Amino acid sequence: PLTDTDGNPVIHGVTAVWRAGEQEQTPPEGFESSGSETVLGVEVTRAKPVTRTITSANIDRLRVTFGVQSLVETTSKGDRNPSSVRLLIQLQ
């Protein structure tokens, strides 16, 4: 909890703002806009590219977050070589 039973702050320097999550609500003060996140949870490889289509007319920004397990490739002999990731995002 951010406050004790008397309403006094337990953690100083933190402000909590309640939003009910309605579609047309304004963003909290100090934020330009609101957003939502969709977790895909899929493995992307050169052999298995991933395509996703977003059709909402309300989108004006897109943030893509991805992670890699390692940027080192291990050969069958046990040698470890640097690896890389190439990412292509197309907006149409």
TrEMBL record:
It comes from the Bacteria. Residues 36-92 form the Tip attachment protein J HDII-ins2 domain. It holds the Pfam family FNIII-A_GpJ. It comes from Escherichia coli. Coiled coil: none annotated. The lineage of its organism: Bacteria, Pseudomonadati, Pseudomonadota, Gammaproteobacteria, Enterobacterales. This is Host specificity protein J.
